[in-house]
């Protein structure tokens, strides 16, 4: 009986990312807004987080419950135990650390960010927490997309970001957490495009648009 009661909630939970996906792909609305919403992340990002965090947790569990007790129960196997521990645990922990750090830095960058493009007025409103910057679509002179070099092989391949440069030199960083599948670049047809490949797309701290630069350039 309990399974039948939980079925609608399970279906709703599964349908939520797909609903956000359909919403994000709609570029025909007069005003298109890009904002972070839980569950909007690319499905590959969510699967990567679940997979490698789960694998790291399982490796730690196996190490502490199966391998380390072996060292205390038997003498003369210390080096072997340490080798097996490193072989099993360290790769998963390293990958999980990179993915979690990437996700946290992207989330911290865009958790309070909103990019709103009015296609009728050709105006853009960029909001970062309590600061706001308004400019014309034509003021975006270049868009540089930073994506993974080994897209189909690296665990962190789905993490990418874009740098929008205005005529006055102001730079705005938009990460992949702000949109789902459809990038805002299609709304800026006059901007020059460039793609830069990196092994890992860490966010550049020195080029991030902070609150001070928003005030100075607005």
Write up this protein:
This is PH domain-containing protein. Residues 39-185 form the PH domain. It comes from Hymenobacter sedentarius. 44% of the residues lie in helices and 23% in strands. Helix 2 packs antiparallel against helix 3 (78-110). It has one domain: Pleckstrin-homology domain (PH domain)/Phosphotyrosine-binding domain (PTB) (PH-domain like). The chain has helices spanning 2-25, 43-73, 78-110, 211-217; strands at residues 31-35, 113-118, 123-128, 131-136, 140-148, 161-166, 171-175, 192-198. The longest helix has 33 residues, at 78-110. A hairpin with a 4-residue loop joins strand 2 (113-118) and strand 3.
Mean pLDDT: 75
Shape: elongated
Q: What would CATH call the class?
A: Mainly Beta
Beta content: 15-25%
Distance between the termini: 59 Å
Number of strands: 8
CATH topology, which one? PH-domain like
Quaternary form: single chain
- Sheet/helix structural class: alpha+beta
Helix fraction bin: 40-55%
Write out the strand line-up for the largest beta sheet, numbering strands in chain order: 1-2-3-4
Give, in order, the helices and strands: HEHHEEEEEEEH
Architecture, according to CATH?
Answer: Roll
Query: How would a crystallographer describe the biggest sheet?
Result: 4 strands, antiparallel
**How many domains would you count in the coordinates?**
1
Poorly predicted regions are 206-218
């Amino acid at each position: 009986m309990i399974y039948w009661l939980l079925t609608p909630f399970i279906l709703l939970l599964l349908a939520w990312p797909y609903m956000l996906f359909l919403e994000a792909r709609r570029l025909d609305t007069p005003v298109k807004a890009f904002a972070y919403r839980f569950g909007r992340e690319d499905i590959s990002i969510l699967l990567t987080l679940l997979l490698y965090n789960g694998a790291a947790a399982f490796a730690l569990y196996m190490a502490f419950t199966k391998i380390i007790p072996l060292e205390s129960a038997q003498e003369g196997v210390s080096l072997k135990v340490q080798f097996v521990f490193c072989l099993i645990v360290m790769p998963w922990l390293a990958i999980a650390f990179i993915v979690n750090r990437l996700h946290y830095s992207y989330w911290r960058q865009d958790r309070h960010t909103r990019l709103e493009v009015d296609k009728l007025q050709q105006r853009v409103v960029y909001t970062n927490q309590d600061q706001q910057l308004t400019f014309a679509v034509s003021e975006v002179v270049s868009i540089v997309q930073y994506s993974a070099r080994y897209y189909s092989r690296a665990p962190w391949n789905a993490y990418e970001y874009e740098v929008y440069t205005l005529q006055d030199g102001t730079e705005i960083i938009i990460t992949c957490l702000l949109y789902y599948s459809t990038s805002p670049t299609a709304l800026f047809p006059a901007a020059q495009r460039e793609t830069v490949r990196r092994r890992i797309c860490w966010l550049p701290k020195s080029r991030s648009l902070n609150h001070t630069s928003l005030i100075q350039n607005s």
